[in-house]
């Protein structure tokens, strides 16, 4: 079970760090919620359910963990204003599905948006997520 208060704290920290670093508070952001599962078939069923909610899904990747086991990871992707309440709403939509499928929610991240970049230029130089210290 996920603690929404802890998730909200992490979200506020990510957003504060981005804006303190000069990221554009008026931009739309690509938000990626990271999910993982040890069973590819179960991950596939999960992402179909999440896709039906209107999210994009990035291709799953296979990773070998230190103990030699395999884990499959992918991102649930959306483009939104970077507001804590919007991130929380997305988490509240997808976390019950993730829990039901036996998957792991590994937080979310986004990219720095340069307020001085031309409108047609994507500035994906720096990625921020809840694993950053």
UniProtKB/TrEMBL annotation:
Keywords: Cytoplasm
Ranges of Acidic residues composition bias in the record: 116-133
Annotated Pfam families: RraB
Region: Disordered, residue numbers: 111-133
Annotated InterPro entries: RraB, RraB-like_sf, RraB_dom
Record-annotated Regulator of ribonuclease activity B domain positions: 10-110
Highest taxon of the lineage: Bacteria
GO cellular component: cytoplasm
Gene3D superfamilies in the record: RraB-like
Gene Ontology MF annotations: endoribonuclease inhibitor activity; enzyme binding
Places the protein is found: Cytoplasm
Family, as annotated: Belongs to the RraB family.
HAMAP family: RraB
Function: Globally modulates RNA abundance by binding to RNase E (Rne) and regulating its endonucleolytic activity. Can modulate Rne action in a substrate-dependent manner by altering the composition of the degradosome.
Subunit structure: Interacts with the C-terminal region of Rne.
Protein name per UniProt: Regulator of ribonuclease activity B
Organism: Phocoenobacter uteri
């Amino acid at each position: 079970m996920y603690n929404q208060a802890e998730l909200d704290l992490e979200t506020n920290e990510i957003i504060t760090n981005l804006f303190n670093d000069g990221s554009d508070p008026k931009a739309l952001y690509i938000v990626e919620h990271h999910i993982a599962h040890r069973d590819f078939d179960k991950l596939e069923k999960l992402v179909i359910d999440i896709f039906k909610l209107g999210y994009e899904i990035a291709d799953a990747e296979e990773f070998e963990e230190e103990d030699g086991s395999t884990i499959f990871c992918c991102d649930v992707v959306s483009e939104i204003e970077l507001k804590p309440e919007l991130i929380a709403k997305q988490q509240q939509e997808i976390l019950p599905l993730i829990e039901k499928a036996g998957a792991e929610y590994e937080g979310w991240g986004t990219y720095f948006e340069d307020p001085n970049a031309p409108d047609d230029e994507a500035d994906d130089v720096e990625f921020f997520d809840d694993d950053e210290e």
